[in-house]
Amino acid sequence: MLDFPTTFLRAMQATTLAPRAADLFTQGLERRTGSALLRFGAARQRPAGRTGWTGDGAVAWLDDTRGHVWSVGEPDAAAGLVLRAALTRPDRVREFTGPRGTETLVGRHLPVADVVEWIFRWTLAEPPVQRGEDRVTALDESHHDELLAFLNTHSPAHSTGPGAEGVSLWAGIRDPEDGRLIACGALSSLRDSGAPLMASVATDAALRGQGLGAALTSWLTRHAVRRHGFCTLWQLADNTPAERLYDRLGYRNEDPCVSGRLITP
Predict the structure, then answer these.
(1) Residue 185, Cα to own-chain centre: how many angstroms?
(2) Which side of the chain, N or C, has fewer Cβ within a 10 Å radius?
(3) Helix 240-248 to helix 212-228 angle, to the nearest 10 degrees?
(4) 167, 187 in Cβ contact below 8 A?
(5) Rounded to an integer, what distance in angstroms lies between the CA atom of residue 155 and that of residue 162?
(6) Do the strands 68-73 and 95-99 form a parallel or antiparallel pair, or are they unpaired?
(7) Cα 262 from Cα 122, distance rounded (Å)
(8) How far apart are CA 108 and CA 79, in angstroms?
(9) Which of 10-24, 60-74, 232-246 has the lowest mean pLDDT?
């Protein structure tokens, strides 16, 4: 039998949200440092069918398609909401994201697997122009096969592929001599809010370290900021080269997150 002390009791005291437009924003959490995932990731206008929870110092909402609970706030309170979601809807909740520490607190009550630490990064400003940025061009549906072949070769674990839902733009850089694709990337979107999310930036493995990724990332960031006023991306916590690049391009680094898979009874 599982033991559910403070974290679980807070979860059970949390309130399942009614369908009101500002449900996730009544505490003002989105204005606090470390809560950009709520500010940019959750639509203030409540999407039809979105399920959410609120507690003292945290909010959470469910991506029902993926079975993924997103939580923001104090780790203890956020873990409580993840537990509430998992234990009241075990057939629908399979994954979670929360502030660092959430995985340990949840793991005291439910088994957690495949833990990944990452950073939700964002910027409101256009980055400094990077060398080679003028070589970036937009790509359309006629290039999807080429893009997929390139990603499968040079970035097999890419998060977004050609034709994926939510992608608004693909861009690439070509070799000036033979015209072959040597770098690519996409602007996708966060499912709930539609906020621009950079994804699947990849460069030819033989040409890394030459600034191609920086040029492409800068170009995509500039496009998103001009069109939407901001851009977001996900960075793995142990990716030091990416961290240096994003710092240089002006992306904020104040939203450490953790994700995991729940093994429910």
Answers:
(1) 15
(2) N
(3) 50
(4) yes
(5) 13
(6) parallel
(7) 28
(8) 10
(9) 10-24
Measured between alpha carbons, how far is 28 from 43 in angstroms, rounded to an integer?
A: 14
pLDDT exceeds 80 at position 157: yes
At residue 132, what are phi and psi to the nearest 5 degrees? 90, 0
d(CA 117, CA 169): 27
Best CA proximity match to 85, nearest among 30, 32, 17: 17
Kindly write down the DSSP assignment for every residue of 177-194, as one continuous string: TT--EEEEEEEEE-TTT-
Angle, helices 6-13 vs 75-88, to 10°: value is 70
Q: Which amino acid is at 117?
A: E
pTM: 0.89
Q: Which of 54, 63, 118 is nearest to 94 (CA)?
A: 63
Query: Tokens 């088994």 correspond to what residue?
Result: 111
Query: Could you tell me how many residues make up the chain?
Result: 265
Tell me the pLDDT tens digit for each residue of 144-153. 999 999 999 9
Which residues have a Cβ under 8 Å from the Cβ of 158 and sit 6 or more positions away? 151, 199, 200, 202
Q: How far apart are CA 14 and CA 61, in angstroms?
A: 13
What does each C-alpha distance from 67 to 64, 104, 141 come to in angstroms? 5, 20, 30
Three-state SS at 260: strand
Amino acid symbol at 224:
A
> In whole angstroms, how far apart are CA 54 and each of 24, 79, 112?
7, 12, 22
Tokens 């693909």 identify what position?
170
Distance between CA atoms of 14 and 154, rounded to whole angstroms? 45
